[in-house]
Fold this protein.
Amino acid sequence: MDILEGLSIVFQLNNFLLLAFGVVLGIIVGAIPGLTATLAISLLLPFTFGLEATSALIMLIGIYCGGIYGGSITAILLRTPGTPGAAATLLDGYPLAQNGQAGRALGIATTASFIGGIVSGIFLIFLAPTISKFALKFSSAEFFALAFFGLTIIFSVSSGSLLKGAIAGLIGLLVNTVGMDPLVAYPRFTFGIKSLLVGFPLLPAVIGLFALTEVFALFRRGVVDEGKVDKKLDRIIPRWSDIKALKWIFAKCSLIGTFIGALPGAGANIAAFVAYSEAKRTSKHPETFGKGNIEGVAASETANNAVTGGALIPMLTLGVPGDAVTAVLLGALTIQGLQPGPLLFSDHPEVVNSIFASVLVANVVMLITGLTLATLIARIASIRKTILVPVIAIFSLLGAFASEGSLIHMRIAILFGIIGYILERNGFPLAPIALAIVMGTLAEKNFRTALIRAEGSYSIFFGSPISIFFLAIAVASIIYSLYTQIKSNKAKES
């Protein structure tokens, strides 16, 4: 593989302009709730038909990288995750903004996104075949073990009461039971409503849980201008002291995001929550997570964007998309007459090299654009809340509608907003619900598939080192969370 050849292709004027356009468009689209990178690529795919294969893919890669990052902007400033993966970012990003540190949060989020994207791009270039072969070893048992480990993160993101966090997680799992059975295609808990056959979509649910819940809470408090984000954002470019303090977060969360991205079916949302949990587990001040800890922002955004390069690994080498966006990119390759797989590397090396190079360059453009436009974007948060709250409400509902162009999605967002408001007012955390919705389907489908393969024997979950590894760290995560909770309760009593 000749990365220099790829860079020479990307830096051709027309290709570079397409890449920059894609990144900026991706950031804007990603910042709008409901308009995900997947949707942006899907809408713009027809406009690439007249372009050469390399030019088309370069622009689409730019949209991909920008779109994943863009969701963090509104997550930090408005508590409205532009993308599902940004749901973990808002847990600490929004409290930081409320405390007058919006610039710091945005700067770290942008830098973390850049580092995660670059690291994953390097892995994509040098380790694509190796990682894809390892991901190929995952069967249903290994995927269930991964999902089970993901579900134990519920305890890590539950601030205050583990019991309430567990209940919230169960609510999220119950939400996943609505719709068609993933194995036998039988409707469950739809109550004769045809629109519920597909279940509750993730994005409207997340928008309702976080954005509309906040809107309802603000209306209850009387919509006063308190906790307003500093519109000046005096310090957006991160301090060297912050970057130095977060170096290990950047390193391990880049690896987490790249690895999870390389697993077919996993995505940025899973990677973000896993990284967030790991950062909290190893933090010297885990009690501050959810209250404005910059480590939480750095962890989720690093892993979130590291998924971009990781997800391209199985798509290019095996023809297996790592997430929804790469599934669309897979279609784009096919439309251009290219067949992903080992032959792609030998027959069309210029295409592969340009993709590799575009991932690296797109992240550099994203860094510059994010740091440059942060002040402009942050002015949204300086609008008086008497104006901003109704705008957020309308924006959120439109975002829910835009995700599939269906009015039912607006109703779902409102429903989850009401549920979230009631739960949050009674001290229940909302993050476990979102996490359980993300992980629930993956866990159920692979658990049942594994048992069918093993004819009902649970020994299949202990039949491979990969499965045992994930189950072991899941149990360790539960024990650690319980220990931390008991220790915290004793400290309060004393």
Q: What stands out?
A: The chain has a mean pLDDT of 81. The chain has one domain: 3-493.
